[in-house]
Here is the input.
Amino acid sequence: MITFETTRLIIREVSEEDFPYLLAIYTCRKNMEYISSGKFDWTMEELKSKYNRMNKDYRKGYGIFVAEKKDDHTIIGEAGLFDSFDDPATLELGYIVDQNYWRKGFGHEISEALIQYAFDRLGIEKVVARMYADNLGSVSLSEKAGMKKTETGTTPEGKVFYRYDLLKEE
Here is the structure.
């Protein structure tokens, strides 16, 4: 089972018991406001289907993980590494943190842990993060993590997005 830790969090594979907590996060409009689809009316079946599809690569060491507080085992969100570019040396970083835990440093812990895990344990050469330009928290976290803005674009719906990249240091 894939597990790694930060100072305050355990990042681990998703279990069946986690889905009610994850569904509560996914059905909160504010939590999903900066996620690409913006969808917040998830059903349990849709959520499980998404996790099954995204976690087919657990055997390779990546997918969507649960972010759980060490002290009380509260699930505060998810943390993920995705093969978005069909490049075995590049993974995309993503996360969703419940709004009750925003501005408490958890997003930073998750980002740093995913980056370290990707470089040190998976041997990845580049980590990418993409976000909407108005997602100031994620923009700030990407820059704090040492990532460099490499692209600015506009979605078909007219939303401005950024891409940030971080190369593994030799």
Observations:
- Residues 106-121 form the longest helix (16 residues).
